[in-house]
Structures are given as structure tokens and as C-alpha cells.
Design brief:
Length: 435
């Protein structure tokens, strides 16, 4: 049987008030406080009726007797009904108060939120403005830092240029002093003006007819053309940098012109000088620009900062110490800022080279160690000085393996270097102030 939702609610509330509820109270969405109040009013009205109904019809006497006997129960039921109605009324009033408080709290929270939203928008706007301002300041600081770094780099480059200029001027002064001392000494010797004595003291190979012999000597001991081309290959990119700046590459002691030929194939503007006429003739026959001149005199004839790169392959070991220093001084003068200098010479740390094969060439003055050649380049004012060890014997590439002894393994590696290690080394340096 369907039960009126209002009646069901009242019964649930009464059972809950009396402690007899065995299930939670549920409020149907259709039930309102007005419906509850109307039903409770009806219950109270019925509960306050004190008159007993008067029986009529047949068995009226019996009916009256039954009513009198049940009057006690009916009175207690009215009391219970009134108490239940009172509890339900109290619950309804509490519900109304709660609803009112909830509505009030909802309005208060809505008002608070309405006040907070503008503040949040204002704070967000301020935060965005502060962020943009901070970003602008950071950008400004980055620009200032970049400008400062550029200024520092420029100042360092100027300092390098000034230091290089000071080194150049010092080297020029020393060269002039040595030249003056040499001339004074020559002028003080007897028969100093006799051209025959001057020719004999010069020790010129051509005066003894040895130029042709030296060409044969080089042909006997020199590597094959293919080997030379392979060896020169690693210098091509370094020397080719000069052509981008409109300055040629100068090959001192160009010989037959093997390096110049490789540079010409690569499109590098280059020329060379050599004092051996036979070598020069061979180079000219190959269409190369090689001039017969003394390398130091040629360097002195050049204007400052006119050469992009200078290479001297197996030349330094032919020069006395003072001429090597003069060559470095003049090379620093004629190179453009950042221009490269390449000096390749036999490696005396390979004992086979330093103690034996180096002395096959009678024009070699003395072996030059890697440490000394690196030092004099730095001392003359060059920068970025680098030593490269080249052309080891094939046996140097063999894997020795391990003997199980650290000391013995180290000794074997040292012996491998000393006997089969690099046959040559090159010092690569640059004039400061470029790049």
C-alpha cells in the first residue's frame, strides 16, 4: 500500500525522536516544510478532541462499554500524538533555522568571493606587470653583459696587438744591433772589401758546384711523390684560411714545389722562395711561382702584414740559431693578424733520426728539439703554439701487448717511441690579434 510521503516522514521523525528508528530518515524532494506543518496541525487538532464518540444503533450499550474500557488507551494515544507532533514541530523549526543559516552563509560566502575576485584579478595583473618588468630588466642586463664581454674581448685583442708590436719592435732592435755589430766586425777585418774573400767565407753551395749534387742527394733520400702529397694534405686546410683574407701563402725553402702544387690544386694563392737554382728551375717547369732568393732577405723585403701564412718544411734545421731567430722575427712582422706559421723539422726524440739519419744531410746545422722550437716561437711573440708529431715508422702502430709488469710495459713503450716513433714534428703557431 502506498504511503503518503508526508505521513511517512512524520512517522520517521517520531520514531527517531523516541529512539525507535532503525533506518536513516529520508526526505522526499516533494515534501516541504509547509506540507509538514499542515499535517502536524491536523494531528494536533485530532489529539485535542477530548469528547468520546457516542455510539448509536444496535448494541449501543455494548459499544459504550467498550469505549469506556478503552478510554485509558485512547487518552495515552492522544498524549503520544501530541508529544510526537511537538517533536516534529521542533524538528521542522530546526530545519527552517538551518536553511536560513545556510542561506545566510551562502550569501556571506558569495559576498566574500565577490570581494576576493577583484583582488585576485588585481594581484594577477600586478604579478604579470612585475614579470614583464623583470623580463625587460633581465634583457637589459643581458645586453649590458654582452656589450661588456665584447668590450673585454676588444680590449684583450688590443692588448695582444700591443704586446705583439712590442715584441716586434724589440726583435727589430736586437736584429739591428746584431747587424750593426756584424758590419763593424766585418769592417775591422783586414781585406774586408776583397770580394774573393767574401765569396769564400760565405760557403755558398753554388760556389762549389754542389747545387746539382744536393738535388741528387734529395732525390736519393726523399720520400715518394705520393707520400709527400699525403703528408702535405693535413696542412692544406690550415694554410687555405689565408686566402679568405686576400693574403698569399709563402713557402720558405719550396724546393721542387710539392706543397705549392698541392695548394694550387686546392685553389690557394701561394708562392715560394728557394736558394737552390736547380730546385727553382724544376718548380718553374711545373708552372709554379717559385723565386730564387735568400729566405731572410725575401722576408725583410716584404711589407708588414702582407702574408696570410708561412710554411717552412725542413728548413729550420739548416739555419744557425741566430738566423732562425731572425726568420721568426721577420715572419711575425709580415704575417697578418691571426696568420699561421708552420715549421716542420726532423724529430730528434726518435733516436734513429736524431743520432743517425739526421746527419745524412751535410747542410743540417744541428737537431732542433720540439721544446726549443716551441719556446723560441713563443719568445718571438707567436701565440697558440702547438706541437704535432708526424710520420711514425709503420712498426710504431704495432700493438705490443702487456707483459704483466707496469715498469716493463712503460719501458717498451718508451723504446717503441725512441726507435720507431714519429720521424718529424711540426710547430704550428699564429700571430696574435686575429680571429
Amino acid at each position: 500500500m502506498d504511503v503518503n510521503p508526508t505521513v511517512q516522514l512524520i512517522e520517521d521523525l517520531v520514531d527517531r525522536a523516541l529512539g525507535r528508528a532503525d533506518r536513516p530518515t529520508t526526505v522526499s524532494p516533494a515534501v516541504t516544510t509547509a506540507d509538514l506543518e499542515r499535517h502536524l496541525a491536523a494531528i494536533e487538532m485530532n489529539a485535542r478532541v477530548d469528547e468520546m464518540p457516542q455510539p448509536v444503533g444496535r448494541y449501543s450499550t455494548l459499544k459504550r462499554l467498550i469505549l469506556k474500557l478503552s478510554s485509558f488507551v485512547l487518552v495515552r494515544q492522544r498524549t503520544v500524538n501530541l508529544a510526537s507532533a511537538g517533536v516534529a514541530s521542533g524538528l521542522i523549526r530546526s530545519m527552517d533555522e538551518i536553511k536560513a543559516e545556510m542561506a545566510h552563509e551562502s550569501k556571506r560566502q558569495a559576498g566574500a568571493l565577490a570581494g576576493i575576485e577583484p583582488r585576485l584579478r588585481s594581484a594577477a595583473t600586478q604579478h604579470r606587470d612585475m614579470h614583464e618588468e623583470t623580463v625587460e630588466r633581465v634583457r637589459g642586463l643581458e645586453m649590458q653583459l654582452a656589450a661588456h664581454e665584447a668590450l673585454v674581448a676588444e680590449m684583450r685583442a688590443r692588448i695582444n696587438d700591443v704586446e705583439a708590436t712590442l715584441v716586434l719592435e724589440s726583435s727589430r732592435r736586437h736584429a739591428m744591433e746584431r747587424s750593426l755589430v756584424s758590419r763593424l766586425a766585418a769592417a775591422s777585418r783586414p781585406n774586408a772589401g776583397d770580394p774573393r774573400i767574401a765569396t769564400e767565407s760565405a760557403g755558398d753551395l753554388e760556389a762549389f758546384g754542389l747545387h746539382e749534387m744536393y738535388e741528387r742527394f734529395e732525390s736519393w733520400f726523399r720520400p715518394s711523390d705520393a707520400t709527400l702529397r699525403q703528408r702535405f694534405e693535413e696542412y692544406v686546410p690550415l694554410l687555405a684560411e689565408a686566402t679568405g683574407q686576400g693574403a698569399p701563402v709563402l713557402d720558405l725553402g719550396a724546393g721542387r714545389g710539392e706543397l705549392l702544387l698541392r695548394l694550387r690544386v686546392a685553389g690557394v694563392d701561394c708562392y715560394g722562395v728557394d736558394s737552390n737554382q736547380s730546385m727553382v728551375d724544376r718548380a718553374l717547369a711545373s708552372g709554379l711561382d717559385v723565386r730564387r732568393e735568400d729566405l731572410l732577405e725575401h722576408l725583410r723585403s716584404l711589407r708588414a702584414e702582407s702574408i696570410g701564412a708561412i710554411c717552412a718544411i725542413h728548413v729550420a734545421e739548416h739555419l744557425p740559431p741566430e738566423l732562425l731567430l731572425d726568420m721568426l722575427t721577420e715572419a711575425l712582422r709580415v704575417l697578418i693578424p691571426g696568420g699561421a706559421l708552420v715549421l716542420e723539422t726532423p724529430n730528434p726524440t726518435n733516436l734513429v733520426i736524431g743520432a743517425a739519419s739526421f746527419h745524412n744531410d751535410p747542410t743540417h746545422v744541428h737537431p732542433i728539439t720540439p721544446d726549443y722550437l716551441s719556446f723560441v716561437c713563443k719568445d718571438r711573440g707567436f701565440a697558440e703554439v702547438e706541437t704535432r708529431f708526424l710520420h711514425p715508422f709503420p712498426e710504431y702502430e704495432l700493438e705490443l701487448g702487456s707483459t704483466g709488469s707496469v715498469a716493463l710495459d712503460a719501458l717498451l713503450r718508451d723504446l717503441q717511441w725512441a726507435l720507431k716513433g714519429p720521424q718529424d714534428f711540426a710547430v704550428v703557431a699564429r700571430r696574435p690579434g686575429g680571429r
